[in-house]
Amino acid sequence: MPHQSSVPMSWRLQKNRYNLVGSFCESCNLDIFPPRKSCTKCGKDTKEKTFSGNGTIMSFTHITSAPTGFTSNYTIAIIKLDEGPTLTAQIVNPDKTDIEKKVKPVFRKMFSDGSSGVITYGTKFKVVE
Amino acid sequence: MKVAVIGVGQTKFGEEWNKSLRDLAREAGQEALKDASLSSSVIQSLHVGNMSAGRFSGQEHVSALVADSLNIKAPSVRCEAACASGALAFRSALHSIQAGSSNIAIALGVEKMSDLGVDQTTTTLMAASDQEWEANMGATFPGLYALIARAHMHQYGTTREQMALVSVNNHKNGSANKLAQFPFPVSVEQVLNSTMVADPLTLLDCSPITDGSAAIILASEDYVRQNNIENPIWVAASAQGNDTIALHDRSSLTQMDSVKAAAKSAYEQSGLTPEKINFAEVHDCFSINELVAIEGLGFCNEGESGKFVENGEISLQGSKPINTTGGLKSIGHPVGATGIRQIVDITKQLRENSINQLNSVSNGLALNVGGSGATAVIHILTNQL
Fold first, then answer.
1. In degrees rounded to 5, what are phi and psi of residue B151?
2. Choosing a second label site near A40 at 20 to 30 A (CA), which of A126, B18, B119, B167?
3. Claim to verify: residue B213 and residue B303 sit in the same structural domain
């Protein structure tokens, strides 16, 4: 049973996941995250852009039946970044979580590949008091 | 070119530990051939719907395996669009006949899911999402639909009870279905009090992990006429809509543009309107998705599906009976087989030999959804040409 994420895959996405490096289309003045190499509107090549990570919760759920590599329970949410794009991510303070709450980014462990495999890190989000 | 369904078959759905992938496919295929009074040697092409035999069973090249199991030497192809693989296989068979490359074809969906543990099954199903930006964040399929459910509740005031009523309706319809995995009724209280999977969705809001197969023989109008086939069920529309693979990239969390696009095309092809659809099989992988489907298909206005269900419109006696034989919830959801199973059950209604036969129906609609809504496939069938 292959794991869902290999070492090269985690390495390839490090910049995007650690620092929220997404994309920007100069022609459409459009912010894009998760990153895409062509614009979702005009199809032209995009440039890199780092996002603030500040955003608002649009929806959330507490996962009580986890896939391989994750440990129940944890909370995931769809977050609308202040710049506009939306993404899926974990929230680290579930008790404070609700729709329309403001969040900020935090650097966290994402999952591990067994007890001796690579640990993948990335950005999670914290509800701002 | 008109195309008809002339034979259908389905295995018992459930945890079938003594049956392999090939056993399931063979059984459904043989039954469809028998139903059409044909031998496998007449089949000119085979179209297999299967999501993930590679991960579930370590078996790829599934089209060849299924052809082998049925002693078919004709060209075979596998179609994959996660949980919509079955409807895509049907659509592929239809296209091969419409293109003139086959006169008679078999569409067969199969999935053998119970050989893996639950966490591995969850991981495998999650391969239908955006692996890098959804699955790797810890999202699960119940989780993605829970995000849709909470947004629907927040935006429209839909209640937990209204979602639970979808499971109640479908289990009630499935309680007489001998091919169903869970042929028993459930109450609203049982749904609400069952184990939480991804809140607000509980275990009884979720379709199960299932082994099963279903198969359909399709034939051109010429073949039907030349062979005096009795009681053909005609394909009145076949449509597909697509959207971004990740839920977070969609224009709405509560409406599926893929479903709306497929519905628009299917209604145009058939000349029908939502009001004129007699009954429907919709993709209740999670209770919330039946509500989203009811709105996307235009059976009620956006945000009003909860009330629609609460008013009993989807029951066998209602204005729009939905999932009349149990849906994914009660019958089970072998992901690659479901889209075919839906059309099998529509065919049985239109032949007037369903376990829950409706009165004077002339058409039925099937909606099969892949992933969290990236793929939507709609077929409309009719017993009148």
1. -65, -40
2. A126
3. no
CA closest to A73 among chain B residues: B198
Residues B34-92 pLDDT 10s: 999 999 999 999 999 999 999 999 999 999 999 999 999 999 999 999 999 999 999 99
Nearest residue of A to residue B139 by CA position? A76
Domain tally for chain B?
A: 2
Q: Residue B66: give the domain boundaries.
A: 3-117+209-234
Q: What is the ipTM of this complex?
A: 0.96
d(CA B297, CA B260): 6
| Same domain assignment for residues B224 and B302 | no
**Which phi-psi region, left, alpha or beta, contains residue B213 (left: φ > 0; alpha: ψ -120 to 50)?**
beta
In a mutagenesis test of the B interface, which of A59, A73, A86 is the best target, namely the one with the most B β-carbons within 10 Å?
A59
Final residue before a domain boundary, out of B195, B218, B234: B234
- HSE-CB for B246 with a 13 A CA cutoff: 21
pTM above 0.80, yes or no: yes
Task: Please tell me if residue B146 touches chain A, with a CB cutoff of 8 Å.
Answer: yes
Buried/exposed B68-87: b ≥16 CB within 10 Å, e otherwise: ebbebebbbebbbbbbbbbb
CB contact under 8 A, B122 and A67: yes
Residue B332: give its domain's CATH number: 3.40.47.10
Q: Are residues B195 and B322 in the same domain?
A: yes
B253 with B187, same domain: the answer is yes
Does the CB of B132 have a partner CB in chain A at under 8 Å?
A: yes
Tokens 């919509």 correspond to what residue? B84
Q: Does the CB of A120 have a partner CB in chain B at under 8 Å?
A: yes
Q: What angle do CA B342, B81, B260 make, to 5 degrees?
A: 70
**Contact call for A58 and B253, based on CB within 8 A:** yes
Residue B176 located in a structural domain = yes
Instruction: Please indicate, yes or no, whether residues B219 and B268 belong to a single structural domain of this protein.
Output: no
A5 touches chain B (CB under 8 A): yes
Pairing of strands B104-111, B45-49: parallel
Contact call for B137 and A76, based on CB within 8 A: yes
Beta bridge partners of A109: A121
Both B180 and B328 in a single domain? yes
